[in-house]
Amino acid sequence: MGDKYAELDFSVPPSQRHGVAVGGELAANMRRRLPEFPDLLTAALEEVHIVTRRFFTETTNQSATVVGNHAFNDLDSFIDGLLSGDGRSAARAARSLFEHLVNYCEVMSSPEAAERYMEHKTVTADLIGNLTHGLHYLKGTPHKRERGRLAKLKRDSLQPLKEALSRFGTQFRRDWSSRNLYDRAAAHGHASHYDTYRLLSQVTHGSCGGVLGSRTAIAGQIVHRTGPSLELAVLSYLEGFTFFREFAREIGTRQHIEALNLIESIEALLSYWPKYRQALTEIDGLLWPESPPAGPIAIVAIYPNGRARWFFWEPALNRMKPAYPPAGCEWMEDRFREYVRAGNVEIPANMEGRPITSAVSGVQVTPQTASQWFTASGILAPGATPATPSLAPWLIGE
User: Fold this and answer.
1) Residue 71 · residue 52 · CB < 8 Å
2) Among 76, 151, 157, 350, which residue's beta carbon has the most beta carbons within 10 A?
3) How many CB atoms are located within 10 Å of the residue 295 CB?
4) Using CA atoms, how far apart are residues 278 and 271, in angstroms rounded to an integer?
């Protein structure tokens, strides 16, 4: 959307400019309120590195190494989400960490489960082989090569997939395991976390409850916020580190890989959760607007030469873009000209070629292609702000 944030007055609290352009401020606020957090993470990641190296070097169960690949990579994604306040990404990663915990226990305790887990790669190969919808974006040699690669992948997976389905049943396409996640979790002593997993899953599944931290009621109106969900970050912090701590414990127990220092470093992070929670709750209060933000508004402008132009006004940013005139707008332009000529608008002396403007509610305009944002003061009279009436007085019929 161009440089629409370039001239925002950052002395104005985010709540008074509807929370826009908060990325840099969010990071700065988190650093100021959570000075110990980076050192705690560094200490934990040092221990993660040591355990990771031993895990992939010493683990002979190949299915366990694949699960570990997922877990250690998702831990990185999880931490990235916490550092940026991106609660939705943190929630998805935390949810995955629970699955990796349960799956690790499953493949380490059952040779059959380990075999099924590895054999499920044939389903993956078949799915990838079917992903041909991107071919029409490729031309020439890249198209030919990708088409051949997918065809070969599909062809090579047919017989292994057929054999796997014959051995494990047709439901094997849907899930590698012969039992559901809850039953696996219960079998390995982790069922107490399942409801939390279900809660985090609401983000992934797009359930109504999954919009924690990005939807609320203000002054009797529902307000939706795009960007970081700090409420989900707070929730995910506690659960994601808890899941990974349990994963580390299982590694230490099942493989005799020394993980005590890692577990203690995760415990230190869990003990820090109240400070993280307080800090993000305070910051979240700064980001929500004090009142429901107005939506984009069409502006009609009549210049001194009588020419009419239309603009797309974003009140939350106090920025405008040139817009295409709405269909059949000539009668509105004529009526506004007549309204101005009749002396119904007080015209300041210092207009300096600026147009007379009016907000037009109920009319949608589309910003012109490749047009740039500019400050509303570029066309408004000094000190003026377009009014936002339910119906412009000059549109009222005689």
Assistant:
1) no
2) 157
3) 11
4) 13
Token digits of residue 201 = 């899953």
Contact 326, 298 (CB under 8 A): yes
Task: For 113-165, give the secondary structure using H, E and C.
Answer: HHHHHHHCHHHHHHHHHCCCCCHHHCCHHHHHHHHHHHHHHHHHHHHHHHHHH
Amino acid at 228: P
Tokens 């500019």, residue?
A: 374
**What confidence tens digit (pLDDT) does each residue in 27-50 have?**
888 988 999 999 999 999 999 999
Give the 3-state secondary structure of residue 60.
Answer: coil
Q: How many CB atoms lie within 10 A of CB 186?
A: 15
Q: Letter for the amino acid at 44?
A: A
What's the whole-model pTM score?
0.86
Contacts of 110 (CB under 8 A, 6+ apart): none
Enter the DSSP assignment of 164.
H
pLDDT 10s digits, 102-125: 999 999 999 999 999 999 999 999
Look-up: residue for tokens 């690790």? 104
